[in-house]
Amino acid sequence: MIVKKVPNSKSKHKTASIRDLADYIREPHNQNPDEKVLYANGRGFLCDDHAAQREEMVALAAESVRSKNPVNHYIMSWREGEQPSPEQVEEAVSIFMEELGWKDHQAIYGLHKDTDNIHLHIAINRVHPETLKIVEINRGFDIELAHRAIARIEHAQGWQREQNGRYQVLENGELGRAPYDPEKPRQPDQKKRDMENRTGEKSALRIAIEDGAAIIKQAQSWEQLHRELAAKGMRYEKTGSGATVFVGDVGVKASDVDRNASLAKMQKRLGEYQPAPQRQQVAQREPEPIKPDVPGWKDYITGRKAHYAAKNAAKLALDKQQEQERKQLAEQQKARRDELMRGNWKGKGEVLNAMRSVIAAEQAAEKAALKEKHQKQREQWRQQFRPYPDLEQWQRMQKSPELAEQWRHRASEPQRIEGASGEPPTPRDIRAYVPEIVGQQVHYSRKDDAGRGGGVSFVDKGKSIDIHDWRNRDSTLAALQLSAQKWGSFTVTGNDEYKAMCAKLAAEHGFKITNPELQESIQQERQRIQQERAQAMKSEQLKQFERYAEAVGAERYRVTSIKMQADGRKQTFILDKKDGITRGFTPQEIAQRTPEMQRLQRRGENLYYTPLSDRKHHILIDDMNREKLERLIRDGYQPAVVLESSPGNYQAIITVPKLGTVHDKDVGNRLSDALNREYGDPKLSGAIHPHRAPGYENRKPKHQREDGSYPEVRLLKAERRECVKALALSSQIDAEYQRQAALKAQQPTLAKAKPALELAAASGSAIDAYQRHYRDVLKRQRGGEVDLSRVDSMIAVRMRVTGHDQAAIEGAIRQCAPATRQKDEGRDWNDYAQRTARYAYSAAGDRQAAELGKYRQQWEKLEGREPVRQQEQAKAQKIERDNSPGMSL
């Protein structure tokens, strides 16, 4: 079964449109004497007779003032030879209306027959009979629901399913949609295909798709595009804000030819549009048949073109003649009015008005007579140039009914496979098909259809195999397998759809098809299959990384593995670190190291990515809840990646181009700090920061589930983009740094570190440790200006190594750091101390502490803690000796 939605007439008022539609459904013979009604009915009405039901539908539709026409018209068609009973029609209408969500609405329907295919017209009023409001289903995409309904009707009543049907009822009763095949060639829309079916001539859109799409895809310049299209009789022209592809003088929308043929996408690829040279010659195209070698088609199409050319010429001549007659009458009437009105009519007003009335009546009669004459002339023109018959009718008129039948059933013609030798046909075991010897041929039918009157799937004729059920992929595959057994290599002949299917099957199963025109398609299909197999073999983690990396667009990625110890400590390992240097991995290297990363995950370690780029900042916004994430996006920031690092907790990566100034590093740090203070973790600092790797588990102990498993880090969003708003913010920050640098240049002063002697005396082990490390670090600096913030971070890490906790480090920095500055820096020292101490205990601090652990005893001695440790060790040894059992005397 197939279903179509008939568009409503735009020229008619909805009242007239509904009445005409209802009358046509019940009484089609008034418009087409050959169309008969087999069954008709209505539902949802108070009255039983047709006229009353029609007026009820008009009245209810009138309640929807804003809708131009709330009545939808659908046509359901059965296959040739299928005829539903009245009970099946009622059931089909019920299923259809229920699937579309209009179960209780008004409907008028009729089963018609005017061809070998029986079809059901159904008009449904979308206005609900009780609420008086229009019920809109699936946001207006009701044709999709109509296809679902057709699948349910086929299943419920046992009708044969269309080979290319969108939906099919599965074994569990649910609807399954046929998978979308991106490799399937584009087709013209239904209206153009209907015209092709009537005339046998390819539409301009089909020609553009077949001959123009490849040229448009492969063009490397506008000049090449125009030149190659012109050689095929086509033009690509800018029209308004879009583009049109002309085949001869017929234009089609460029994006209908190929999704990448729109003006915007072509300009993105080839640059600003350049028109074709004015003198470029465009080849002339003759009309082309959709099926080659149709007997009599050239005579038919020549006669059709001549008929409509004469019709159009006669119409133009008639219009010109009638316009001249209207103009001539208007001039004559004006001259007569001027002549009668000439003279002095002063004081004769009543007579003047009477004269005007008489003249107006006479001239109105003359206009009416002329209008009636013109209407008769147009009717004569219509009778003279009746619609030209379609190809099937024309062949019957030419006394060739067999050719008409051949054209009508051309889609059912068997496709062919031809071998090199004439090996006699013998029955063979071919999958699910049963062979039957019929004369000098072997007929193969599906085992499932045996005994049920099923048709023949394919026929072995010796030198060739005819495939009758060629639209069925299994039948074509079985016929190709038989051909491979018989001949090894062979040629396929038939339509393009069949050949494309054979090329795919040859690539999948290794058949040797010798058609030269199919070799490129077979090779491309083989490459596609290999790529799909390679993709299927990839791990889910690698697939997620590829999506993530495509969105982030970093040059390299550092991979960090952190293992949580039982005592809460972290053990950090950077996969690419060698001789103290880490550069990160390329995406290709990540793919190679994925098995190693998976092993680390299985060992219970947490995995992190750090995107690294010379020309971009990749800003991590950490520790967001859903509300903060939505606010970030609502405020205009555009993350390239959004991760759910743990249930209800999110991370976002924003990509921002670096500005290429000396302040890039500081700008990135400030940008990260500002965004995390507003939306994420206010404690996070630094533009280069690791984040959890998507596809791997978050193995923090607090996230462990009752069953012992851990949540996976989910990649919620991945879209390659650079954030415009973040770029504007980084530009503001850079401008501030530039301003400060300019002021500093005007008053040059070197911020030199104060000598240690100037430090105020202080008490407390942490403060004393800070001062000792401060003096030691300064000794190791070699001249020039000292970055005191860097000195403080070094001291914080040192103090962590020697056993000071974060709070003690923060307190020491808060008290001592201001005294080391030459002048007041206007800092928030509380915040500065918090961030510096937090850095010592961050992931970066973890790595530094692990690397610097070998200096622990040296720094403890620097802090003056070594003698204390020795005393404690001696005391412990004495206690151990005293408690050990002595020798008895």
Q: Could you describe the 3D structure shown?
A:
- The protein is an alpha+beta fold.
- It folds into five domains: 2-177, BirA Bifunctional Protein, domain 2, CATH 3.30.930; 190-270, no CATH class; 415-534, no CATH class; 538-734, Alpha-Beta Plaits, CATH 3.30.70.1790; 756-874, Methyltransferase, Methionine Synthase (B12-binding Domains), Chain A, domain 1 (Orthogonal Bundle), CATH 1.10.1240.50.
- Helices cover 46% and strands 16% of the residues.
- It contains 28 helices and 25 strands.
- The strands form six sheets. A seven-stranded mixed β-sheet has the order 12-13-14-15-11-16-17, with helices on one face.
- Helix 15 links the parallel strand 16 and strand 17 (512-513).
- Helix 12 runs antiparallel to helix 13, helix 15 crosses helix 16 (519-537) and helix 23 (788-801) runs antiparallel to helix 24.
- The longest helix has 45 residues, at 297-341.
- The chain is extended, with a radius of gyration of 42 Å.
- The protein starts with a strand and ends in a 6-residue tail after the last helix.
**Tally of discrete structural domains:** 5
* Gyration radius, in Å: 42 Å
SSE-based structural type = alpha+beta
Q: How many distinct beta strands?
A: 25
What's the N-to-C terminus distance? 112 Å
How much of the sequence lies in strands comes to 15-25%
CATH superfamily of the largest domain: RepB DNA-primase, N-terminal domain
Output mean pLDDT.
86
Give the helix proportion (percent range): 40-55%
Q: How do the strands line up in the largest sheet? A: 12-13-14-15-11-16-17
Quickly name the level 1 CATH class of the largest domain.
Alpha Beta
Q: In CATH terms, what is the fold-level topology of the largest domain?
A: Alpha-Beta Plaits
Q: What characteristic shape results from the CA principal axes?
A: extended
Question: Main β-sheet, in a few words?
Answer: 7 strands, mixed
Low-confidence blocks of residues = 749-763, 879-889
Count, helices: 28
The CATH architecture of the largest domain can be named as 2-Layer Sandwich
